[in-house]
Amino acid sequence: MQPVVELDQVHKKFGALHVLRGVSFSVTKGQVVAIIGKSGSGKSTALRCMDRLETVNSGTIHVCGHAVHDAALDVRALRRDVGIVFQGYNLFPHLTALQNITLGLTSVKRMSPADAREVAMEVLAHVGLAEKAVAYPEQLSGGQQQRVAIARSLAMKPQVMLFDEVTSALDPELTGEVLKVIETLASEGMTMVLVTHEMAFARGVADKIIFMHEGQIREEGDASMLAAPKTPELRQFLGNGL
Length: 242
Ligand SMILES: Nc1ncnc2c1ncn2[C@@H]1O[C@H](COP(=O)(O)OP(=O)(O)O)[C@@H](O)[C@H]1O
Ligand SMILES: [Mg+2]
Prior knowledge:
The protein is an alpha/beta fold. It has helices at residues 43-50, 75-81, 97-107, 113-126, 142-155, 172-187, 199-205, 224-227, 232-240; strands at residues 5-14, 17-27, 32-36, 58-63, 66-67, 82-85, 160-164, 191-195, 208-213, 216-221. The strands form two sheets. Strands 6-7-8-3-9-10 form a six-stranded mixed beta sheet, sandwiched between helices. The protein has a four-stranded antiparallel beta sheet with strand order 2-1-4-5, with helices on one face.
């Protein structure tokens, strides 16, 4: 079976800064892959390259059959298949939760307002926020806003979801509700790549964990890798980086 996501020897530089130094990994359908590593190790850059928010210097990236590294990539076609959620929720403050979700459906997907509303209510219910449909972002907690942002992504029916530290801006008491939504998606078979600093969460939800260090994958394995780190870098990261 073709992997949903496949990176092969990806290099990325920002000027003289060589941020990704030969990153290769793959994600199969329904797999949940967690990327961990200390700040600056290249985790966000790797994720952003998968959605063509950054272009690579060399190597190849295939996502849902799209050759993402190719200059001729149909970016809109890629974005129809990939959902990405960041640390900041990026909701429009002047739109309700519902309107934040219907916007992309009526514009990008050209859905009728009635159909868009139906899909939006469905995904809001899915993240446990059906009763907040008419609330504005400022009337929602950070955790609720992040759940709306996830629902907005889900409404586009992506083949794969990318999450970049989606709980790191949240107070600890709000992270659980967001992680629970991601766990639900995992149990439903959504293919996901998530950058996280929540080690217990990564251990619980990920089929594969990738430890990045200075732009390279230093260790890769299942959750047991966290109990028995092989490299001094991972050992140190787990010791300090919680
Ligand atoms: N757009 C950019 N321009 C220049 N340098 C960048 C840019 N984005 C990231 N970097 C640098 O690349 C390195 C890796 O960043 P990043 O991928 O965000 O790491 P992580 O997500 O693991 O913390 C850092 O040194 C960061 O400062
Ligand atoms: Mg980052």
